[in-house]
Design a protein that fits this description.
Layout (H helix, E strand, L loop, with lengths): L8 E5 L5 E5 L2 H28 L3 H4 L4 H10 L1 H10 L3 H24 L1 H6 L10 H10 L5 H14 L16 E7 L10 E9 L7 E7 L2 E7 L9 E3 L3 E7 L6 E4 L2 E4 L2 E6 L2 E12 L7 E7 L5 E3 L10 E4 L1 H5 L6 H6 L4 H8 L7 E7 L4 E6 L14 E2 L21 E4 L17 H11 L9 H5 L8 H8 L6 H12 L9 H19 L1 H4 L12 H4 L1 H7 L1 H5 L8 H15 L5 H4 L30 E3 L3 E8 L2 E5 L7 E3 L15 H6 L3 E2 L8 E3 L3
Parallel strand pairs: 2-5, 9-18
Antiparallel strand pairs: 1-2, 1-25, 3-4, 3-19, 4-21, 4-22, 5-6, 6-7, 7-8, 8-16, 9-15, 10-11, 11-12, 12-13, 14-15, 16-17, 20-21, 22-23, 23-24
């Protein structure tokens, strides 16, 4: 094999079809990354392009209309254009090379993907800012903006007294586990970084295993299909990094008062009535009539709910950093590829914008990093709790918070709990996952990469204890209910797929959730909120009750007889006598842009949303797993070839590598990271 410079780019694959790319320079490599992504993931990235533009209903039908309407009203594509226009020339050129590569490969990729023919969709044409729009689409709702709508809804329906009921550290929409072991704690004498990002499980997956090599760098990790570089999880040989959601609060909702006057729309702000931007867009909908959307933007931001003719109580503008600053932090991506030390990674992440993340990094010289990266505005504390009045100047942004960091003492854990980012957010994940990871890691030294799988797949559910403690004191149970209680109190608290007791606990939890949600003290929340359909997951009562269950059971709810409620729930579960195992009901249910009703039930899973094996369902609604480990990784800083990784399905959107990693993912196994070019197969043509 000759030197890299003999050809512009060369493409190799390992046994799982994972692409390894070599190119003569940085921009040629970006072109190659874009092209291979179009070949492997054409349907996936075209769906995301259309979602970013608000044009997906044109081929996916009415079910996609709610998202398309939000994307138009939030002006996602326009924000991406603004951020692209502000890029430095070098970064813009690099992104442009990636886009050129996507456009070069889309036709061939679309020919391989049957979804295009099934929907009548033709491969489109990417614009220079499309990768930025896709990034924004994936992350625009990461910051808990929907939770502010929920708290505002609670205050309207029940009164301000009720908002703290759901304000305890609780469930999150997207999170992750991650941990770092310093050299003194490993068998190799070099640091290890491991973890697993938790997101909606999609088919194909949100993370693309890839390797990018040119004379400047050689980096492997997980890319986001449609976005150049390796942002979240990467290993460059001398240095490696990983992230989790910091649970920071960096988006605000402003209650707007609007009026129509002389053909214009005006918004009432701190300086009185001011003209707002307004235009109308039309959304094409497959199988239905087109829908017109009025797009309005005030000085606070785009209107994402309500309008001049609607109830002012639900007329809300969204303010978030990329729209304000015209910056998505894309210059960080090439800087990360070129990083060689922890200091380089740290400096690169100084430019990060959103989502706001906790970062762990280590290098071969012994450098360690544990910090927060992103942009969080400074403003009135009420902004973090609910939708605030647009007319009050005290709710304006007043600069940016500095990003905190902490030293690493042998072990660092990040699992969305309060910690290094505590001063930047309002609600965080409960400490169960973080505490369990720390306890497991403290149990030994001399850790090796292959031992990390035992932590990835730990099923202990400490979150069960608050409910079981109350159950132990519940009086007046019948014989069957007493027998069930004794079983659950003896249960080892592990949500193993083969456990009947784990399933019984899930049944008890669901029964309690349903009864609490139906109680008159909370039932008023179970109705239309007035906010758009896209925010439904944040505004549904049953999930909110399920994830705040310990706090609600100890709350002073008017008219709540806690013992009677628990007694009725355990009697119900005991009478049902369900003997199915947890895994029979806790099955993988991945999101697909084009669902097939004939698809059989997904495979059985262990775990639960507060286990380290965070395979999340929705208590009281479904036992199916909608969100979980979208990838797993172990980065070895001693020998990169000892690193491991896996994704839920496979490297490709179609063909033999569509789901060949699924058996490994289900068993908690990780596959080899191949670093030796001679062990790879060079691929020619499309």
């Amino acid at each position: 094999m000759g030197p890299v410079s003999e050809r512009t780019a060369r493409r190799y694959r390992d046994a799982y079809g994972i692409p390894h790319l070599r190119a003569a320079d940085h921009e040629a490599l970006a072109f190659a990354q874009g092209r291979v992504t179009a070949l492997d993931r054409a349907w996936q990235i075209e769906v995301e392009r259309h979602r970013s533009q608000g044009t997906s209903a044109a081929f996916l039908g009415p079910d996609a209309l709610a998202w398309d309407s939000f994307a138009r009203r939030a002006r996602l594509d326009d924000t991406a254009r603004r951020c692209h226009a502000a890029l430095d020339p070098a970064t813009a050129g690099w992104v442009g090379s990636y886009v050129d590569g996507v456009n070069a490969g889309l036709a061939a990729g679309a020919a391989r993907a049957p979804e295009f023919a099934a929907t009548g969709l033709a491969a489109g044409h990417w614009r220079p800012w499309t990768p930025l729009a896709i990034w924004l689409t994936h992350h625009v709702l990461f910051a808990g903006f929907g939770t502010k709508l929920w708290r505002t809804h609670v205050a309207r329906r029940l009164g301000p007294w009720a908002t703290p009921l759901f304000a305890a550290d609780g469930h999150l929409t997207s999170g992750s586990n991650g941990w770092l072991l310093a050299a003194d704690r490993t068998a190799t004498g070099a640091a290890l970084i491991a973890g697993d990002p938790h997101r909606i499980i999609e088919a194909p997956g949100i993370y693309q295993q890839i390797r990018l090599a040119c004379p400047e760098y050689d980096v492997l990790g997980f890319a986001v299909p449609g976005v150049p570089g390796i942002a979240h999880f990467g290993h460059a040989g001398e240095v490696a990094w990983a992230i989790t959601n910091a649970m920071a609060d960096y988006q605000d909702g402003y209650a707007e008062r609007l009026r129509r006057r002389d053909g214009l729309v005006e918004a009432y702000g701190p300086d009185g009535w001011r003209a707002a931007h307004r235009h109308v867009e039309t959304i094409e909908v497959a199988g239905a009539d087109p829908v017109e959307v009025e797009v309005i933007e005030t000085e606070r931001g785009p209107l994402i709910s309500g309008g001049p003719d609607d109830d002012p109580a639900v007329t809300v503008a969204l303010r978030h950093p990329p729209r304000v600053t015209a910056d998505l932090g894309f210059a960080v991506l090439p800087a990360l590829l070129r990083a060689r030390t922890v200091g380089d990674v740290d400096a690169a992440f100084d430019g990060w914008v959103e989502p706001v993340n906790v970062v762990l990094a280590a290098d071969t010289a012994g450098g360690l990093l544990h910090r927060v990266a992103g942009r969080v505005p400074q403003r009135h504390p009420d902004n973090g709790l609910r939708v605030v009045p647009a007319c009050q100047a005290r709710h304006a942004w007043q600069g940016w918070h500095p990003m905190p960091s902490v030293p690493v003492d042998q072990v660092a854990v990040m699992a969305n709990e309060r910690g290094v980012s505590a001063g930047l957010g309002v609600e965080f994940a409960p400490p169960y996952r973080a505490d369990q990871i720390r306890e497991l890691l403290a149990a030994g030294t001399g850790w090796r990469p292959e031992q990390m799988a035992a932590i990835h797949t730990d099923t202990y559910l400490a979150a069960a204890e608050p409910l079981l403690a109350l159950l132990a004191e519940t009086p007046g149970l019948g014989d069957e209910a007493v027998a069930l209680r004794e079983r659950l109190l003896r249960w080892d608290r592990r949500m193993d797929a083969g456990s009947v007791d784990a399933a019984a606990f899930a049944d008890l939890r669901a029964a309690v959730v349903r009864r609490l949600a139906a109680h008159p003290a909370l039932a008023a929340l179970d109705g239309p909120s007035g906010y758009p359909e896209v925010f439904g997951p944040w505004l549904a009562l049953l999930p909110r009750v399920g994830y705040a269950l310990p706090a609600l059971l100890h709350a002073d709810l008017p008219g709540l007889d806690r013992d009677a409620l628990l007694r009725a729930a355990v009697e119900e579960v005991a009478a049902a006598g369900d003997t199915r195992r947890w895994g029979e009901r806790h099955r993988l249910a991945p999101w697909r842009a084009l669902p097939d009703p004939a698809t059989p039930d997904g495979p059985e899973l262990a775990g639960d949303h507060d286990c380290v094996l965070a395979t999340a369902s929705v208590p009281g609604v479904t036992d199916r797993c909608l969100r979980g480990p979208a990838a797993r990784y172990v980065w070895d800083l001693g020998r990169r070839e000892h690193s491991r990784w896996v994704v839920p399905f496979g490297a490709d959107g179609t063909g033999p590598h569509r789901d060949d990693q699924l058996p490994h993912w289900l068993r908690g196994e990780l596959i080899e990271v191949v670093c030796d070019w001679d062990r790879l197969t060079e691929e020619h043509g499309d």
